[in-house]
Amino acid sequence: MTLITDDILNELLTIQSDQALTNRFMARNPQFINCIRAMLEATGPSKVRPLPGTAPLNAVEVSIYDNWPAGKRVKSKPNRYGFSLNASDAVKPDPLSWEYHFSGSLVSGDDLKERVTALQKPKLRNPISNDFREFAHTLVDVHEDISLDYRFGLLQAKPHGEGTVYPDSHVLVVQLDPQSTRYSVADANLFVGMDCMPLAPFVRSFAGGKGLTSNVILQSRSARGTGMAGWQSD
């Protein structure tokens, strides 16, 4: 097993102490960052921290993934579109140390309704409430009156030894145009119950300007905190 040397650790601590250096490092090393996040999630905390509403959030990063390269179905990925969502309520958010981390799949309204109904089964380790189910149904109905291009994602986390947890009424809603050759998002909102946060525009680059890699097709970065100049997508 490879151990991190003191020199490397000191270099990382130096980068972490400066927001501009942090943004540049993350933009240039996205695979490294994603690997660290995956390891932390796999051995993560034993409890899930729900979002404290949307008003306290000072930074939110949402990445959308296309799990079917060139539109070809992948057996291990039943849903084509996935997402990750990182958030912070710190006064000075640190993109290397998010307070909240979730992931999930973006599905149609009909699929979401089926999903929340299935997640109510008492035999499940972490069933959702009836209020959550009704809230999800209402979100679908309201948005599909506007456009059928909306996709819906239940925020989920997998704390170590606790199975999959769906924090109450945490839903990502994205108007994704799958017909566009380069994809586009006309509207996107994060809901925590009736709390709603409009997300910054989705772009095709990481913070710092480097193009998206792997199967990431779009990313939104919303910032309210201090020291985040140049990080938000626009």
Total strand count, please?
9
Q: What level of helicity do the residues show?
A: 25-40%
Structural category: alpha+beta
Relative strand content: 15-25%
What number of domains? 1
Characterize the biggest β-sheet: 5 strands, antiparallel
Spell out the helices and strands N to C: HHHEEEHHEEEEEE
End-to-end separation in angstroms reads 41 Å
Indicate the low-confidence ranges by residue numbers: none
Write down the overall geometry. Answer: globular
Q: For the largest sheet, list the strands in their spatial order.
A: 3-2-1-9-8
**Mean pLDDT level:** 86
Task: Quickly count the helices.
Answer: 5
Task: Describe the model.
The chain has 234 residues and is an alpha+beta fold. The protein has one domain. It is 25% helix and 24% strand. It has five helices and nine strands; from the N terminus they run αααβββααββββββ. The protein is globular.
